[in-house]
Amino acid sequence: MIFGNVNNEFILRQIAMLPAPLQSAIRYLKDEDLAAWEPGVFDIELDGVPMILQVLDLKTAPREMLRPEIHRRNIDVQFLAAGGPERAGYYNDDQTSEVDEDLLDTPRDILFYHNLPDAPEGTIEMVPGTFAIYFPWDVHIPAIQVGDEPAPIRKIVIKVPMSACPEAVSD
Asked: Are the CB atoms for 27 and 34 separated by under 8 Å?
């Protein structure tokens, strides 16, 4: 999992270390006014790589009401375009979590796990401009409420195909 903020003065140096398709996705989030788009799902192409762009209007919710999720074919680049704050949870997928709903073989490419009370879950705080990149081994829980009241958020998700990123070379 990698996170940052597109308004950080070092953003271009930070993303220079990422595979080209992820760099393209972050630059797109930085340069486009996605908060002004209508909600929906859109097919886009960035530097020759087909990707899926989701524009979602959501409300944050208490952590216990949200299910951990994971994707296998796509890398999720999640971006808080407006609203919030939002907390996002994450932990490594060690294959010990109990599956709640498996939709990996559908266009959604998503698997939900049951909440695991003792999961070694970390969190990040998201404000507008914050992005989080979740790889297939990163269980994540987006849209967690901060404080006592839910907050409206405009969430952008770019789904980058794993197949567009170079595979690591093993020894």
From this structure: no
Q: Which amino acid is at 103?
A: L
Residue type, position 27, single letter: R
Strand stretches in 18-162, DSSP E: 40-46, 49-59, 69-70, 74-83, 86-92, 99-103, 110-113, 122-126, 130-134, 138-144, 152-161
Question: Do 105 and 73 contact (CB within 8 A), yes or no?
Answer: no
Say which DSSP state 93 is in. Answer: -
Predicted local distance difference test score (pLDDT) of residue 95? 84
With 0-12 / 13-18 / 19 or more C-beta atoms within 10 angstroms meaning exposed / middle / buried, residue 123 is middle
Q: Measure the CA–CA gap between 74 and 33, rounded to whole angstroms.
A: 23
Q: What is the pLDDT of residues 22-79, one digit of tens each?
A: 999 999 999 999 988 999 999 999 999 999 999 999 999 999 999 999 999 999 999 9
- Provide the 3-class DSSP secondary structure of residue 26: helix
Cβ atoms within 10 Å of 83's Cβ, excluding its own: 19
User: Using an 8 Å Cβ cutoff, are 81 and 31 in contact?
Assistant: no
Using CB atoms within 10 Å of the CB of residue 34, give its burial: 0 to 12 exposed, 13 to 18 middle, 19+ buried: middle
Half-sphere exposure at residue 15, Cβ-oriented, CA atoms within 13 angstroms: 24
